[in-house]
Structure formats: C-alpha cells, structure tokens
User: Fold these one by one.
Assistant:
Number 1:
Amino acid sequence: MKAAGHDLYANEERIIPARGQEVVATGISITPPEGTYGRIAPRSGMAVKHQITVNAGVIDSDYTGEIKVVLANMSDKEYRIQKGDRIAQLIAEKIVESDCYQVPKLRKTDIGKQGFGSTGTSKAQICEISARAFGKFYQRPDTITGILKYNKKEGRISLESVNISTELAIKSGKYQKQRKLEEMVPQEYHGYLDVFEEEEKTKLPPHRPGVDLDIKLEEGQGLPVKKIYALSQDELEELWNYIKQNEERGWIRETYSEGGSPIMFVKKKDGKLRLCVDYRALNYVTKKDVKWEWGNKEQAAFDELRQKLCSTPVLTYFKPGRPLLVETDASKYVCSGILSQHDEDGRWRPIAYRSKTMAPAECNYDVHDKELLAIVQALKEWRRYLRGSGQHFKVLTTTKIK
C-alpha cells in the first residue's frame, strides 16, 4: 500500500521564529491530475515534537510555479530548517467542480442564521462518586469519563473524554508542562546537551586532527567489488530518497571508485525502512594494526564506568540461600513486578523484571483483584526462584489488600 502523502523537502535553510511563520521553497513544480488539487499538509512528527504546522496550502491544477510551504511555529522557541529536511507532505485530493449561480432566496434550515455553536447544547449533570464506583462506570459503554477543563477567557467548561490512549498520554507527560532539556539532564552532562536533543542532525562534525579516521587497506589489496543485492520497488524509492537527501546535505558525494559495498534494508519497529551497508568484504582487507593506547585518562574513565555499573540497580545473578523480595503493581490494564535479592552488603538488587498487558476480561476486575492478579502472575513466573528457596520471602504491593 502506497503512502497517501508525498514528502516535500526544503530547498533552502530557514529559521522559523517562535510564534511566527516563514515561507520555505521546495525547488519543484507540479501539475495535479485533472479533477484533483494538491493539498499541503503538516508532517505528524514535526507537529508533535516541535509544534511545527502548515498554514494555507492549496495547489490548483493550473498553477505551474514553484511550490512553497508556509511553516508556522506554535512553540516558544525558534526552529531551524536545513536544506534537504522533510518539511511537509503533498496530498492529491479529488474535487467536485461545479458552477456557482445567484438565487433570490436560500432554502430554510434548522440552524438558519444562528452562527457558531448553534448545532445544539445539552446540560451535563455532575456528581461526586467513590473511586470504586468510578471504576465500574468507566467500563460501561454508555458512560463518558474524562477530564474537566475550565477556559478562563471563554468562561466555559469542557469535558475531554478519557480512554486508554488518553491515559497513557497523560502519564507520558502530554498534559504536563514541557520541561527544558537542562532540567532533565544532570548538571555534569550539560556539556553534551546536543547529544540529548530530539532534532534530526543535518550537518557533519568538523574535521579535527587526531579524531578523523583513515581506512587503510592491507598491502596489495584493493577495494572489494561485491554483487549488488536485489531491491524491491519500495526499497528503490527509499534508496533514491536517501541519496537525494544526503547529497543535498553534503553527507555523501558521487564517486567513480572501482569498488563498492552492497546495501540492504531492514524494517524498523514503526514499519519504516533502515538502510544498512554490508562492509564485511571491506573489513576483511582493512589493516588491523591499529595503535592501542591506554593511559591514565582511559583508566580513569573505565574505573568510573565500573563504579557506576556496580552501584546502580542493574540486574544481578540469582544466588540461592539469600533473602528474596517480590514487588508488584497493577494499573487499569497492565500487571508488573520486580524480583530482588540481598547482595553481599545487604542491599536489595533486582534479579528480574516483568510486565504483561491484561486480558479484556481482567481489565474489568476491581482494584484489589487486579493487585492480586499481579501477585499471582509474579509468583507463577518466578516459581523457579521462590519455591524450594528454603526460606520465607516478602511480597510488597501498592494497595492494602484485606
């Protein structure tokens, strides 16, 4: 199945000011098929992560000029567009072409001239109920549960419906104030803030003596020539987009070398394609006599890394005879748990983690039954550790079970 939208790429660098907009050229012109028009739509990734959307964007079939995109920045910080960035998508939509004519009078309708908000209102009854009753009402299809929001400017209250997706968004911070990067990254790592940025990097690092690396071949060896792997139509299209984008960025350039390495594609978790280069033949003829240096600086970094790995709660091996602790928790739709054990210093160290989505019927359990379900699942999964351990073990949960 082909994508509905065709990617549009920036043909120039632009800075979109905070709460402002800029017109970005694409360097291309198109003619939509007869009976259609081109609609420029925002990219979901830019809209969600950076609050960059598209203003206007209708391309008539008789327009033959360059396509330009009006990008609007809804955030409080400026956003930089690099040449070759994907900035929007073009969607071809069918239209009904009709002639307009004047009439002396319009037909009567229920709404008439009432204007905005005239499609009807209904009264809402608000009452206080217990958490147990709310849990039961939440599962009923005829009941709407949600978040009440008050708009001070408009003087009205609105109800935002809550489902599992909304709840996950709330927990992930969608409805929380966005924190600055400096607030989320520890102070000692502020010198590397660019590593934690979500924006896609579009420039190569500068050349630096002692950092740049040459690939040297064994004596008498040349660049290997390998057979090109066969690619499907969608993979060829992705390869062409990859070459075009990275040539414009200056990351790659055309070459007439006698050798080359084949490429292949693997699917990411989101279904998109990732380009991979098969360098095995090149690695075989590359010199292996790289100078190995290990001084005080390298030893200090290694010691610090070892100390952090040993002091943080990373997984450790199970050791028979030591005290065990089972911690469980349950939400509306997930059961989770941690199995820990005492180390040599008497500290609790995790041995295993678990998390499992509830079945549809289990989602209807009340809070206490869900907590018990989490305990039962944990005891079953970690039976090999707990049974026959020769001692009692503790189970901790977040809810008091009577």
Number 2:
Amino acid sequence: MDKIKEYKAKNRFYKARTYILEKLKITHKIEEVIYLKQQLALCYYKDNEVNYKISFKKALVILDDSEQLILQNKTIVNYEKIISENLSLMGAVYKRYFEKDKRIKDLKKSIEYYEEVYQKYKEIDNGYAGINTANLYELLWYELNKIGINTDFSNRANEIRKDLLDTIQLNHYWDYFSMANVYLGLKDTQKCNDILKEAILKYDISEWEKFTIFKDLKKIAQINNIDDLSFLTPLFDNVNIDFQKTGLALSGGGFRASLFHIGVLSALAEADKLKDIDVISTVSGGSIVGVLYYLKLKQLLETKEDKDITQDDYLQLISELIDEFFEAVQQDIRNKIFKTLNPKFWLPFGSYTRTKRVAEFYDEYFYKKYNIKYLRELKIIPKNFTDFYPRFENFKRMNKVPILVINATNLNNGHNFQFQATKIGENDLIGEYDRNFLVEWLRFDECEKIKDFKLSEAVCASTAVPGIFPPLVLELSDEIKLNLADGGVYDNQGINALLMEECNDIITSDGGYEMDDMKKIGWFYNFPKTIGIVKYIKRSIDILMDVNRDLLYEKLEYISNTKNIVLNSKNSVDKVNCNSSVNSLSNVYEKISKIRTDLNKFTKDEAGLLMAFGYSLTKENLELKKENSFWFKAYFNKLGLDK
C-alpha cells in the first residue's frame, strides 16, 4: 500500500482514489478491503478539490459500509484497532463539516465519535482520538462562550489532556506532535517547544506536515489567548506566518469592466500586492481580461525562479497587458459577430452559435499568441517544479501561484458553474434549502469527455449575456447537457468563488452596471407594447441583480478584511483625491455612468478614463502610498492619455 501513502504525502488524493478503486476490484481479503475503504473515505474528505457536500457525504457512506463489514467480522485480526480507526475517521468528517458550515451539531457529533474511541481504545490509537476530543471540547466551549453560554467543556478538555500525558508513546513524529498539542492545551509552552525540537531533530518531516501542525497549534494558542508564539520556532523561524488567503474578484460589465480592472491591477502592481494574490475570480468582462492577465503571469512564473521575480516584473507585465488589451478592443468584436456571413451561424438549430463565434474572436485577438488552446493547459507549474498545487504549496512562495476561477451560470439548476485549470464543476456554497442537483467537480485528467475543452469557450460561457448570446452547451453524458450562460446571472461580482476558496482577505473590483433610480416611469413602459415589455423585463432583471449584489456585499461584512472598489458608485467617487495620480476626477461620475457595458470598440479617452478611475479608487480604498504613482503617470504619457 506504499502507493497510497506516496499519493497522500503529495496531496494527490484523486490519484490515490483511482488506485484504491482499482485495488478494490481485485482484493478479497476482508482486512484489506476494510483498509482500502477507510483510505478511500479519507482521500475523499481530505481532498479540497472535490465539492465538500459531495466528498463528505461519500466519505460517510463508505465509512458506514466499512463499519458494517467490521461488525460482521469481529474475529478479524486487530478488530479493536480497525473499529477505532473507522470511528475516528467518522469523527474527522464531522469535524470538517463543522469547519465548513459552523454548525454546532456537527461539532458535537464529531466529539461523540472521537470520545467513544478515547473511552474504549485510547491505548490502541495512542491518544489520537483523545487529542481530538480535548481540542474539540475546548472549541465547543469557545464557540458557545462567544454567544454567552457558559459551560465546563474547557475543564473537560484539560482533564483529557492530563490523562494523555501518561498514555501517548513517542514512536512516530505524529506522536511528538500529539504530545506538543497536549502541552500547549495545558498552556505549557516550554514543554511544547522542547517536544517540537526533539521531533524536528529526530525525523525528516515534510514542509506541508510541519505547516499542518503549525496551523493546529496556532489555533489552540489563539483559543487560549497565548500571544507569544516563539514556542513554534522549531517548525518555522517566522512564527508570524499568517493564514491570510487573498482573493481578487473581477466583475462582469463588458469591456468597460475589463478596462476598469486594468486600472485596479495597475495600482496593485505599483503597491507590490499582485504577488500576494491566492485566488482570482472572474465574471464576464472580468474573465476576458482576467484570463489574459493569467496567461502573462503564467509566462512569468514558469520562466523565472521565485527568488528572482521582482516588482518590476509585475509592472512590466501590466504595461504589456494594457497594450495588448487596448489593441484587441479596437477589433470591435460585437459588430464583427453580427456581420458574420458563415451560413452555419444563422441556422436556428445549429451548434455553431454567436457564442461559439465570440469564442473564436477571443482566441484570435486576445489569447492566440500564448499557444494555450485548452483549459487544462492553463495550469501554472512554476520554474523548477514538475507539478504544483497552490492550495497546499503556496504558503512557501514569495510570489503566489493564484488559482483562476472563471465563473458562468448553469441554467439547468441555477447554480454557479466554475472553470479552473485542473477541473470544472459547481461551487460548494449551495444553500441547504437548495434541492436542485449538483454537478460534481470533473478533473481533466480523469474525465475524457472534457479533456479538450477550450479556454476561449470557458471565457465565452462566462460572457454569454442572455438574450444576446445563446448559452454554451456542454455535453457531459447522453442524459446531461449543461446550458451555461453569463456568470453575472448568478453572481456578477465573482464573490461566491472567493468565499468557496475560504479567502479571508478580499478585494472586489466591481466595474459592473449599477441600477439607476427612476423617480418617474416613462411612457415607453406602456407604449408601444413591444418596447414596453422589453423595458419592463429589463428593469425587473436589473432589480434582481441589484438585490443579489447587495446581498453579496453583506456577506463580505463577515470577512475579516475586505475592500470593495466599485466603479459606478457616487460614494466611491467622493473618496477619490482629485490631486492624486491622474488629473481631476471630480466630474467623472456622470461620464463613467454613461459608458456602455459592451464588447465593441472603445476610444483612448474612454479606456483612459476607466483605467485611471480604477487605479485611483484602488489607491484610495486600499490606502496605498501616492508617491509611487510615477509609473502609471509615465505609462499614460506614453499612450497620450494624460489629460
């Protein structure tokens, strides 16, 4: 079973699952079957690249099945060890459920499973379940205390820890980590430090394993109000490593939004903050420019070592991005689409649609020079790496490898549908009252049907505005044909994808349309009737989108650090310092609000205004230094846009 351990050690859980399923077909010895099932469950619930609502449920079904096998075969060798491992795995799944959904009932369920193992089999599992029981009791005390409910669960946690001091045998480095956990829970930071030193000297421990225990111990320290983290130095010299995960959302809104986003990216580059981005979530117009930025970033990260990349590299990248994007916008894509003479394009039931045509234009004018045809080719593998998984390995890098999420809307079930470099599927953050079916994550290296899905088609799905472009049809099987429309139908800001990725530092660049007030409804809503119906429907859609937008921003109030850079807001305009990098912006609101959200040609003045406004708003909202603005001013001079 060394192959399973190898895959797990590298966080390649999907490969481990494939291997386990093949082994289960040819394995008949009951002990091996149970072991494989337990490992299969573990490789589901630990895999961050699978919808947790699906992976956790599958893990529990598999563990229920293995428990039945165990109970039916009580004479098997190591029965007590096997049943204790099964119960602990059940506890681990419910623990993950609590981490995701914050439901106290899941936390209590996890404690129930772990405590059963602790009470019955603590010598067999060498205190593993006891550690989890103690930590979870303390976490339960902490959560209830926050809402004013006093309990003695913290005392119960410490009773278990004291008992474990005489139980845990130090036979493996994880046993050392367990003992360090016990000492820290008892607030003995010196002994915690000593045991960590001993483990590091004695064993060759991988970076991700050290990082895992580091996070766990730091969380315990936080609950116990331990501010001095120097006891963690055996794991990492810098004990102030934070677990900040920075997400950048680029909203929909046609080329208007795209150009606004370039201004935002320019300010972030100038502040040397682009290197810190962990996740980029894009919608519609944000997807067009977001993918182009990502292709350029891929070039940079794959050709220069992390230690050699500087701020100047990002500034150069943005300079090139401005040139390339503005040149592509001059192609007037929207009008070219409707001038297409190919007869297949106009067939009412043909597969060659306006959406497919716009995908061809995206590829030709924006992405072709990068020789990336298929979505799976978008994956970034940094220089000197043979493979790279950002969710597990980004913490080691000075220049992060961001995960790119291209958002569309699945018309079949009303869910957010996502395209990523390694997989496609649906957002985990589906409400518990949603009864529609869920499309599982499909990986390019596991599903032949999607292997050759094109990058440009992912972007065109994200930009397929209903009523203008037909949905992109994605055939997953004979029974399932997905119809994918503009990501803005579900979430025009791209915020949900960042919440799914558990970002706790969020920058939202919102260049979308903001609904205008109408103090008096015009006559055209009633006459002529055909025009009135269209206006009526459009106004209703605007209201729905405006409500959804407000709800999304309300969600962000619960995130520790968020900055919303909103183009079409008078409140945003009021914040702009009119003596900042670009000349006076005091009257920009009226100009900006009239710029169309479209895919046609934009003039230099329009492009300059949008980029300058995005740049200046970012400087103000993120409270960035103004003296660095020489770069952006110089670039505008070069374009002849310094007006």
Number 3:
Amino acid sequence: MKQIYRFSIDKIRADIPLGLKRFIKHRLSQNIIFYFLYQCYLRDFIGLKEMPQRLPKSITIEATNHCNADCIMCPRNQMTRKTGYMDIMLYEKIISDCVRNGVKEIRLHNYGEPLLHPRIVDMIRIAKKNKLWVLFVTNGSLLSSEKSEKIIKSNLDELCISVDSHKKEDYNKIRRGLDYDTLKSNISLFFELKNKLGAKKPRIIISHVLLNPEDKDNFIKTWENKVDEILLVFYHNWSGESLLREEKPIKKWPCPLLWKRIYILWNGDVTFCCRDFNGGIVLGNLKNEPLEKIYFGERYRELRRSHLKEDFASVPICKDCRSLVFY
C-alpha cells in the first residue's frame, strides 16, 4: 500500500524556515524558474479578484454540530449557536445548487460528528447519485459493524478518522469521552468489512493534530502500511483565541478560503471560514436563496475586498488568524 504523509496545507507555509522564504523571495526576481516555483507555492493567492468567475469546486456541508466527544483542542465548548441536524430536504436543495454550479466535491463535516446524523448514509448516496466526490471526517467511535457496512456500500470516496495520539493514555485525555481501544477495534473491523466486500473505497485517512510535534514519528510508525494516508495537522489558534507563535510576521496574505471554499451550517447558514465555529459571519441562508446568489453577493464581495486591500482588522475573525500569516 502506497503511503502518503501530508501536512495541512494552510500550516505548511508557516513552518518553512525563515531563511528559505527570504531566499525564495530574493531569487524569484532573478530567475524565471524560481519565479515559477514561487507562484506554485503561492498559487492560492495569485489572480484573486473581488468577483470570482465560478463557485469553488469543494463545498463543506455540516451534517450536524452535535458531537459525542469533548476534545481538548476543539472550540465546541465555546459554541453558543444552536445544535441540530440538517434537514434532508434542505440537503437535497443544496446538492442541486452545487451540481448546477459545477461543484465537484462535498465534505459532510464541520463542527460535529457526522455519524450522529440519522440519515448520513442517505446523504452520501444522494451526493454520489449526483456524481460528486464525497468525504467526511469522523472520530471513528460510532463505526459499528452495521454502520461501517452501510458506509462502504454507499460508495463514499474518502473517510478521514481523527486519532491524535498513538498512546491510549494520551488519546483518552485528548479525546475525552472516547476510548482508544474501541477506536482501534472499529478501524480494524472497517478494514475487514471492506476486504470482505471487495470494496476499493473509501480511502482511509488517519489524521493527527500535532499537540506534541515530538510524537509525529511514532504516530507515523503506528499507522504506516495500515491506511492509505496519514494527515498531520498543526494546532490552530482559532483566530486569536490562543497565540502559538511569537515570531514577527513577514506578510499577511488574503485568505484563499474566500475563493476556494464555502461552508454551510446544518441550518442552511452560509459562512466563509472553517474557523468560524459560532457562525459569527453569516452571508445568507440556503433555505431562502440559491447558493450562487450568496456567493456572488455583495456581502461576500465586501469580505474579499477587505482581504485584497489587506484590511484584515475590519473582519474580526480574520484579525488574529494565524493561517493568514507568512512568517
């Protein structure tokens, strides 16, 4: 099985050595090859305009913001918005909007455990019926034999399971309310069922939030050759709630999420940022408007305009966001 070790893209640029960044910036003005490489590195920030030509290819739809865990790095304990499950008729309307606008990928997670939604398998099937690539992130605790078999048969493309430690004691402390032995058993069972059914999908990704970066190598050793991909994610400061770096930033960049993603909460509210756990900036609601009207609307344009002008302070959630910083 081919192994892939991948860092979360919005954190890579914050961890490239400072000297290398300055070297790249110096050389790009002298050599066309370096200029090309630099453009590839910053491809998310090139050619950004106030009015995009089309909707993003990937849309995140929050199936639910209910969760059965209390993870220490998750901001859900600060969440004040209502909890609920997306209505299936609203979901079908959203999928129709996505297909009409050329969306290719649906992510059925956000601030909750997708497997808690009583119709999550139906949601996968509806999206697959419309020829969309479908994935979601789960804590894996609810992957029973029955549910796992239904998910495999739904033709889900990718399943990302959050693990966060290779040690039982640490895992149970980080993912409060869950159990490491149960998780490992569920993952083994999922692979057994997948092999039994002769299924090629879903791809299995194991993700790890690097609360302790020194554990990275041991975590990889635990899961390599067992899963399709290992995703290593740096801890985020949740837009200023906890500042984890002291270096003086070289540059702040417009956030590519304003052009590359749309986040839809369980009640149909549209937001632009995956860090906006409280839905503080709502740009419209899909119960009342088509997706394209919201995305190309004035409120979205105003946010893009602020970022292009580097006026990040005018958007409270962006003011101290570490993902925008190039150190």
